[in-house]
Give the backbone structure.
Amino acid sequence: GPSSVGMDFSLHGFDHVYGIPQHTEALLLKNTSDGDAYRLYNLDIFGHKIHDKIGIYGSVPLLLAHKPNRTSGIFWLNSSETLVDISTKAVAEHVASGSAAETAKQRAVPLTDVRWMSESGIIDVFLLMGPTAFDVFKQFAQLTGTQAMPPLFSLGYHQCRWNYEDEQDVKAVDAGFDEHDIPYDVIWLDIEHTDDKRYFTWDKKKFQNPRKMQEHLRKKKRKLVVIVDPHIKADPTYTLYSQAKDKGYFVKDRNGQDFEGICWPGSSCYLDFTNPEVRKWYADQFAFKTYKGSTNILFVWNDMNEPSVFKGAELTMQKDAVHYNNWEHREVHNLYGFYQQMATAEGLIRRSSGKERPFVLTRSFFAGSQRYGAVWTGDNTAEWGYLRISIPMLLTISMAGISFCGADVGGFIGDPEPELLVRWYQAGAYQPFFRGHSNMESKRREPWLFGEKNTQIIREAIRERYVLLPYLYTLFYRAHTAAEPVMRPLWVEFPGKIETFGVENEYMLGNALLVHPVTEQEAKAVSVLLPGSEEIWYDFRKFKRMEDPGTLKIPVTLENIPVFQRGGTVIPLKTRARKSTEWMIDISYELRVALDTEACATGELYLDDGHSFQYLHKKQFLYRKFTFRKNILSSSCTDESGQYHTTCVVERVIVLGFGQQPNLVTACPKDGKEKEVVFKYDTKTSALTLENLALNVDTDWKICI
């Protein structure tokens, strides 16, 4: 039955608090003293309202507090329904006077009180002392783990809808991308691909030869993702159901019978993923010989795993249902989806004998879900407000340790007007998980269905994503090894700049790119904050140095969104996009070098085979550092233990903010002879372009300017 635990924390000197996803809410947590508390309770809420503190699909009970000289965190480890009350006020603080004769002075300082209340469980709380945001991220990762290293294909573009009808439909959509010259990596199948909503099966009429369909995709160097939900159709002729029933693997009701609820298949039972034996058995279902028609290009999407129970109270499982070891459901509710994703990821690893990285997308999540794959923001709507709110939602999830996150491009519910769809593609291209998805009732919206002009703009947005992949993949390696979020709020990079603390309409992608999606209809200009009086910022596409930092009015057209590179950084790019990530392995690199006030810059490139665990077990990786100082760009090894080799070369270097036209540029490979370099200098933008370099990525070299 219900019990209750709670605790109050006073955060002295703090009035900016963040975190506790998932809510359709602003980045800065609001004062709740005159309204609802923030609720952490995983629920299937179709078309969740904007600016609502109700819990939706996932919960991470981590709250961050920030002031200019310190970041702290509170991790309240409890998986039952939790409410968080926040009260921020100014309190008087005495300032000691210099001498006894002077009267003591008072000053107003902020104070934030945070009250955690959970329905069940024990008080198990961790205070993360920072002092920087990056320290807090590392401390949280020591407790919950870092982001799993994703396979490279999963950072490409994903095409999904509820539902692609049959094998012919899949082939036609796949061909459409080639015909319109738009890169993509993965096509997805929702619940209608199964035999009457029995997961791990195929509809015999619509998907008669799933293996052949996958072979077709494999030849195109593409992948397939299928949905596998946690509810199991109550049908004695369905092997999965009868096996699980015989073994006692379902969650029980309070009377010890198998809990039955309604979901997509009708009457269903729910696997008890809190039981390690059930997780092991479930993982075994992904073996190629068991999951008929599956191949090694098939990956998995776990949906409805809050768990969703139609006709249940709040559309979820009743709290007095009973799990393994007699835990009531109320105790473990927010962990249910976490454990399904854990078992699924384990199954995909095991089917390859531990060799291949899994890809699993989950809707429901908890602290630590980053170890098993990706999450998305659920059933959003095709309206401008949902595009706008997706930015703070993704930033909040990212700060809670889950870097691999995204929102359904275009909005899941309804039909986006072409301008909204274009703007959403442009935003999604610069966010970690990039998937277009739509509801059964929505009109078809493959990227080429909105006229030639819009097709061209969406094509360009997706290509920009593919060219950026070396940088993104390197950021994911940093997330995996150092717990640095891929997508981060401005204040994390500029902790002393108070003007950044509430910014939620733009964000940093790594430490080098500032992205400002356009989220207003028919916008002609946007107001962009370029932080840091000592920083230099460059237009990422036009190469020109921006005026002084601060808030600038930037004109925009439908063609693209404002993206800026920070001075002092080097970004590795591919020189062009091709049909999918696998087609791009041998494409040469470009280094975009943006100089700071000292005319210096540094950056990194991480590289491995993109799909296996060899980077871990056999040191099959390459980790390079690029440094520009005193007019010399050098490439050196960051981690000498890396053994990976590539024939890829750095073909082009563009130096932004280079003072004057050089007389001579030479390249010196470590083991070769010096050669003269072809260059162009643009006096308008001060950009220096070096071409035809053919410098090996995996060796040391220098370019002297």
In short: The mean pLDDT is 97. The chain is about 20% helix and 25% strand. The first strand starts at residue 5 and ends at 12. The longest helix spans residues 336-351.
